[in-house]
Amino acid sequence: FPNQLGFLPHREYTGQNLRSNSSSVREPATTEKVIVSCPVPDRFCKEGKILEIHTQNRTIYNGLGFNLPKDTELIAAFSGEFKEEDIQKGKYKLLRITTPDKKFEARYLYASGENTSSKSAQVKKGEVLSTIKGGSLDALNQSFKDINLQFYVVNVSESLSSLKYKKIEPSDFGSLTLP
């Protein structure tokens, strides 16, 4: 330290000044486990039907399907980043909630309704995202007859070409924890 600046507060240099003090080292943030809640009001939770796509060789899990009355609220299944997009010129909506660690997304596909959240925002578990305004998803897939909401959770940390669906049954809501 130059003598001309000796009036300023300072510490003499020792090799230890370059080492970090263990009390100032930040521990990595622990990620909280995400519990998937029911995406619709409680009275409809158990009415979800397992959706499957049948191919020649296998059956593929494709989420849960709900047939909900008009004006039923869609609810955030967990907290995270919310995004909304129109499908087929607004005929359908796709809502996405991404977990804070960006590994999983909850997806809600439904015949266009009324969005009550902004196009992109942070949402909290239990917050109302939108409402069902009627319609059906059967034009998208014949197995969606009498279904107006498809709900599913996918692992988005994997390759986008092979999204992995997290199998959910209606009895899993409130107890299913995402890794």
Tag the structure with descriptive keywords.
179 residues; mainly beta; three-stranded antiparallel β-sheet; globular
Structural features, described:
It is a single chain. This protein is an all-beta fold. Helices cover 2% and strands 36% of the residues. The chain has one helix and 13 strands. Strand 11 and strand 12 form a beta hairpin. The termini are far apart.
**What overall form do the CA principal axes indicate?**
globular
Major beta-sheet overview: 8 strands, antiparallel
Query: What's the number of extended β-strand segments?
Result: 13
Helix content: under 10%
- Output the radius of gyration: 24 Å
Number of helices: 1
Query: Mean pLDDT, rounded to whole units?
Result: 79
Q: How is the secondary structure organized here?
A:
Elements: E1 34-35, H1 42-45, E2 49-54, E3 59-66, E4 73-75, E5 80-87, E6 92-98, E7 104-111, E8 114-115, E9 120-123, E10 128-131, E11 149-155, E12 164-166, E13 177-178
Antiparallel strand pairs: 1-13, 2-3, 3-11, 4-10, 5-6, 5-9, 6-7, 7-11, 8-10, 11-12
